[in-house]
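Session log. Operator J.P. requested a structure for one protein chain; no other inputs attached. Running the standard single-chain path with token output.
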Amino acid sequence: MPHALWTGSINFGLVNIPVKLFTAVRGNDLSFHYLHKKDKGRINNVRTCSVCHRKVAWNDIVRGYEVEKGEYVLLSDEDFKRVNPEATQSVDIVQFVNQKEIDPMLYDTPYYLEPDKRGRHAYALLREALKKSGKVGIARVVIRTREHLAALRPQGNALVLETMRYASELAAADEFDLPPVKEKVPAPEMKAALMLIDTMTERFEPERFRDEYREQLLTMIRARARGKTLPKVRAKAPQPTNVVNIMDVLQRSLASGRSRYRPVARKNRASKELVAAG
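Structure written below.
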């Protein structure tokens, strides 16, 4: 059973629903250490002062914010504690909005909310009301000493709390050299593009996609641990297309009848390689 980050409540109006907050993301990254190639000794980071060039102990290190070139405001642990938000352990809904109004780029990290026995009915009521209305709740929540803006939305049987980036954290699209929305597209090209999209359209099944890089890396590590080596298998990188006539490229894509990128097979190819290696 996963461990709850905190036990608190969902609050909106005078309604209070007791819940537990669980992370909905499992970290998949592999962890590596830096070693001395000669004797496999662990490499340690040395903290050195840029002024006196001496090693500095942790208890002599403070954090500073550069306000001007070379000018710093020093902050202590107490300073950070003063501005830390109060850990209320609650999801405080401040408004409801149409889900379509939220730019997907604002979403960050998802969490599951699980009701306790006292709150199951109210939890189900809120979940179904959100589904029926097409709305999501915009809330403030403190997670690990930091206050987040978050969206509360229904997903299947669950209420999911998704922390959000603030608008100021996103780069504006007008900072980039992009073709205008009103740029004219010839009708035949549009028709061919829509046909290609249609031929490549399938039901999205996320479980069909795997982290092939991670699997192949693990396969190599396990094989190496057993004294085995695997043959190099490298996917051939597609050659960039010199787009002179977009219509010609679209027609050739339609004629080929296949997508450049396909979901991996349901079976784990890396595990097959591992069996062969062992």
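Operator note: The chain has six helices and nine strands.
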